[in-house]
Amino acid sequence: VYSADGEFLFKFGSHGEGNGQFNAPTGVAVDTNGNIIVADWGNSRIQVFDSTGSFLSYINTSADPLYGPQGLTLTSDGHVAVADSGNHCFKIYRYLQ
Length: 97
What we know:
This protein has no helices and nine strands. By secondary structure, it is an all-beta fold. It has a four-stranded antiparallel beta sheet with strand order 3-4-5-6, with no helix packed on it.
């Protein structure tokens, strides 16, 4: 994580499958509260971290799971839009900050 001036602040995460671990992260966004949202292609999930890099939660559903999310963005109306490459679609999730 870098400051707006380009100064290195800290890094977080490691390779793996657990909370706060990644297997090919492919997209990142930051919400208005400073939470960090990461698309993790290899683990087929979206993870949410606080502004210090501590794991908070996942964004996904068991009814229609992600398969290889490649990127994401936050919309102005409070949703997370995810490019789900393995399912050949975009998915929109309501995001509660």
